[in-house]
Structures are given as structure tokens and as C-alpha cells.
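Problem: given the chain below (245 residues), write out its structure.
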Amino acid sequence: MKSKNSFGRNPQKTLLLTVILLLIIFTSLIGATGSVAISLPLSLLFVGVPIYASNSKEKLRKNKLEKLWPEILDLLISGIQSGLSLSQSIASMGTRGPLETRPIFTRFKLNLKSGQNFETSLHILKFEFSNSLADQVIEVMRISQSSGNRDTALTLRTIAEFITADLSLRQEIKAKHSWIRNAALLAAATPWILLLILSSQESARRAYASTAGVIVLFSGALFSAIAFLWMQKVGKIEYSPRVFA
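Solution.
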């Protein structure tokens, strides 16, 4: 499943979209504040909001797919225990698996029908999911295929238990860090929201249009950006590297 995230996939497209967004935001702020000195640093900060939102959406999509693996593995195990082979059980996920993953497993089934062997179809399936958790599960499927249905079911159940425990731990960590990250984000944004409100006053616009005012604004923008990036780095939960990619 390919991501629809517009940012980060193509550097040239990302740069073009960023410049367009910056111009749109800058023009809007000029109309609202009537001050170039106030609008420019605000634009530089606000242009990161849609990029941050887009990246957050991509992370949510990955997290959602990862959370589906315990359910997928339970369905695969039930299929194997009902007498299906591993390949048949995986192919059946195109109709009885989670809705978000059905197109991926349907393509796996079509690959098998088109004459692709099981190993090649698994490799394509790994490419479609494109995350380390899927890589590990699919690699276990590939290795356990030769051991028979009974051992395959036991192996898949074992990895399902490990994945469930790992996802539970990750969710607990995210819950503990999210309120700190949100509080820090609010603290960084509050002075700029206040500045936007103050820009409606002529005296504030004149003060920030001076050399000292411009230095204060751009220094504040720089430190706010550094604080935000540092906050993201400290609170980031790293994904496991794709060892089996």
C-alpha cells in the first residue's frame, strides 16, 4: 500500500509545495496584520504546520497498519487450523481480512494465480506493506512454510503474542509522552498567537518594524523552531530498522 503523503516522497515536489504554501500564508498574514516584519517570521513558522500534519497522518497510517497484525495473524492461524495451506490462508485475507489490508492480500492472490511462486509473491507482499513488522512476519511465513501446517500455526501464534506485547508497550509509551509533547507544542505556539492578536494595534506594528523588533521576531522564530525540532526528536519513538527488507 503506497502512502498518499505529499511531503517527503519527492524532494523537488516537496520544495515546490513548501514555497507555494509559504507565499499563500505570507500573503494572508500581510492582509491580516499589515506588517511585513510580523508576517514573515510567522509565515516561516506556520508553513511547517501542514507539513507536520501530513507527516503525522502518515505515522497514524503506519501505526494503524501495525495494530492490525495481531488480528491478521489470528485469521491466518484459524485458516491453517481449518485445513488451508499457508498460501491459501494468506490469499483468503483478501476477502476476510481487515478492510484496510484487503487490497494488498487481493494482489497477493492475483500474483499466485498469474503464476508467481510463493516466495516471489511473499516478497511483493513485503514490498506492499513496507514496514519492519510486516517484514518480520512475512519472513517467518517464508521460513515456516516448509515445516508443515501444525508447526506454522504454532510459530504464527508465538509471533502474534510477541507483536501484541510490543504494540501494547509502544502504546503505553506514546500515551505517557503525548501530553508532554502537546504541552510543549502549546507553549511554543502561544507567544506567536499572542503576537498575531497584538498585530492589530498600530503601536505594536511600529515597534516590531524597528531593527530591534525585527531581531526579536527572527530570534524568537529561530529558537521556537529549534525547540520544536528538539521536542520532536526527544519524543520520537523509533521504528525498528527493516532488516529483512
